[in-house]
Amino acid sequence: MTTRYTRKDSATARPSAEHAPTPNLPLRSDEIAFDRWAEGCRYGGGSIPLGELGGRQRIGVNLSELPAGKQNCPLHWHMKEEEHFFILEGRCILRTSDRRHEMRAGDYVCFPAGTRVAHAFENPFDAPCRMLEIGNKDDDEIAVYPQSNKAKLRALGIIVPLPDGAGLDYWDGERADEPLG
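Now predict its structure.
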């Protein structure tokens, strides 16, 4: 089995890869097909990586579509990345660590880095929901997935299980009682 690290790794179609970045030039998003992805029957969607196609260096901007009956990602929060979401059309449900909020066109929400408020979007409605996703990209990002008890360590390129309870002691696994030499 191939390890999947991002939603892009589950892509069933990636037409944006056919476009070279065009810094300092306008993009016509209505002329670019959505990169489509799916994972099981619960997760799925599409996005156009506008920031990538525009030659981004620090800020990611995606035009995303959340189909009816799908969730965009597992519930998660970020240590270093700030995320902004602006609903362009349709409706969806924003799930946070402890609440649900219906969102519709014109609604906006921000998740500052390190607040430990998990979030994901669901679309239980009959029509797709389109939104702008904007956020800084940090090579050292740590994303925490509280429901599945794991963390994505971007700098290492891995997803790891979190230990139960308060975590590990600094000296766990070390040979503190073994003399040198």
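The two ends are 42 Å apart (CA to CA).
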